[in-house]
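Form 7-S
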Amino acid sequence: MPLRLHFTAADLARTRLAEGLRPMLELDIAVRLLQDGAHAVRFGAWRRHSLRRLAPGVRRLFDLIPPTGWTVGFLDHAGAAGIDEAVQRVRATPAARVTADMERWAGRARGRAVPAWTRALGGDGRLLGELADAVALAHREVIAPYQEQMDVLVRTDQVLRSRQVAHGGLDLLLSGLNPRCIRWDSPVLELTTASGFTGDIHLAGRGLLLIPSVFGAVYPASDETAEPQPWLTYPVGVRDTDLFLAPVETARVLSTVPDSLTALLGHTRAVVLWTIAEHPGCTTGELARRAGISPASASQHATVLRTAGLSRTVRHRNTALHTATYAGTHLLGTAG
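Output:
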């Protein structure tokens, strides 16, 4: 049996899409993915690069964030706006809460051995500080090198989800979140989770915050106790199989932009770049219509911009979706 979320009319009225990734939540999912070896085609290269970079102290997080099951409570800061805020929250956790969370977490371990070093966390502020440092370092080594590509995917996904709402309302949005593991049978959302949790959760008028995830490519994560409202992750709806083949090279791209200005200062190509930046996730046809050029010309100019590192194209089914990179928006801002 799946985990079932029950909606009322008030819940549907309050259900909304998050504006972007939640850094600590995405790191939590990534740490799990580093350990289980799944999805080799999509994440294999990222996993190999990340594990090679990973400092020994960071691996302590593996003990507290297992491949499946519960994360220890004081590391659960899905609501933090940025990784720095999440790290400070971990560092400032009162000793009494650390002890209580560790006892609760150990009770949920389901036969998994609790590492001996974790027993000292509640009474050792230095050890807690080292764990907070490990969180910051893990984000720098596992997430930050790929942040720009991830942001592009999320911006594109938000366009797709907004279109779903516009064309079919919340029914279409909820039905298309993750058909493999999230099933909408109004008024119930059924979830298949990696941990196999089952039961019934009544949202009771609080609604649901839908959070996109790049690393949560299959199973959803959720928290029905979160404030101000419960949340649920869903995988970004676009696939980019070369996303994790190499780290972001924003500095290199920016340093080569001056050499590319001759190609980019043409009127049409400048209009195309501006259009992509103003309408992230636009299709080639939409790009052509907005720029006043043919689809073939739009495709050609988008290819040049993509090759120069100023835009990125991802595919959703048979459709190409164009979004400006940081380098592209930086160039427009500088020109402006």
